[in-house]
Amino acid sequence: MMIDQAIIDRTGRILIARKTVLDQFLIESLRKMGVPGVYIREGEEDPDEEIEVAPETLETIEKLKVADRARVTLSDSVKQRVSQGIQFLYNDTSSSDFANTANNITYSLMQAISENDAVAMNIDALKVSDEYTFKHSVDVATMAMIIARKSGLPNKDIYQIGVAGLLHDVGKSHIPNEILNKAGKLTEEEFAVMKNHTIYGYNILKEKSEISNEIIAGVLQHHEKINGRGYPLKLASKQITPYARVLSVADIYDALVTERPYKKGFSAHDALEMIMAMTDELDVDFMRSFIDTVILYPVDTSVTLSNGERARVVKNTPHYPMRPKVVGLKSGKVYDLANDISCASIIIE
């Protein structure tokens, strides 16, 4: 396999260059560094190889390159532990060890975020299961914790939001499988049944004294909308608990980008645009925090600009994940998409 990203340490040094062919030694080295997975090249064609990149352009790229912010990653052992734990939670909601298991999983996620001071995420690298509900729950918990951290919430709330994220769909354990796993679009009657999962989740958790009222309210309300058109209570604005407002952003984004039997997943770029258009439904402050945690185009990614030029990402811009600084591979021109007014009409395609 040929790696399609550069492996960079926290000081910005390139440890493994992009397009390096991986051998067993490098794979073992990556594992020892705690890297759970990497992007590899697929197919034989690479548009960059058709472009003769001048030495001075390569020099410009290296000079301007700024390493991305630390992203949360999970080691294989943590992934396995989290995967087993989340399956246990959703398969045995009456277990006396339910709350303890949820706390142990959340602790593992919190530790992964704290260990590398993670302020960003790559949900593709978090995959712990092929089963949608389990994967989705871990994705939402992790994203929600990152959003809460970015928003400046105290560690106690970040932790509890993680628990709420893990359990936000636990009520789906009471939804009939023929509805839960239906390959096509739900009928109105089926969707009405599906919406009951928030109430089922509330009923499951309210019997567990170890789980706080804030977590239970977050699970009950995670489908409420700021405009009052959500469910099950049609709450609006600040009537909705902060935990639920954080969960809603993470829940919708992950649902958009995840492929399901009845729909293809949206690209991260398109999903982010859709999230940004939901100002009447989502908490704007938490939405901003979410936008600030997303890295759409990691440094060293090759992109195509709307002017037709291939370019290499050298720096991501805070608050503007869709407009990084890039260098044209053929022209050597620097495009500061977020700050240079002359680039206002240029987008990444």
Question: Secondary structure elements and their pairing?
Answer:
Elements: E1 7-8, E2 14-16, H1 24-32, H2 55-64, H3 76-91, H4 98-115, H5 132-150, H6 155-167, H7 177-180, H8 188-194, H9 197-205, H10 213-221, H11 242-257, H12 268-276, H13 284-291, E3 302-304, E4 310-317, E5 320-328, E6 334-336
Antiparallel strand pairs: 1-2, 3-4, 4-5, 5-6
Helix pairs in contact: 3-4, 3-5, 4-5, 4-6, 5-6, 5-11, 5-13, 6-10, 6-11, 9-10, 10-11, 11-12
Which range best describes the helical content: under 10%, 10-25%, 25-40%, 40-55%, 55-70% or over 70%?
Answer: 40-55%
Going by helix content, strand content and strand pairing, the class is alpha+beta
Q: What's the overall geometry?
A: globular
Q: What does the main sheet amount to?
A: 4 strands, antiparallel
User: Strands of the biggest beta sheet: in what spatial order?
Assistant: 3-4-5-6
Mean pLDDT metric: 88
Structure explained in plain terms:
This protein folds into three domains: 1-44, no CATH class; 51-68 and 296-349, no CATH class; 76-291, Hypothetical protein af1432. It contains 13 helices and six strands. The model has no long low-confidence stretch (mean pLDDT 88). The strands form two sheets. Strands 3-4-5-6 form a four-stranded antiparallel sheet, with helices on one face. A two-stranded antiparallel ribbon has the order 1-2. It is of the alpha+beta class and 349 residues long. The chain is globular and about 65 Å long.
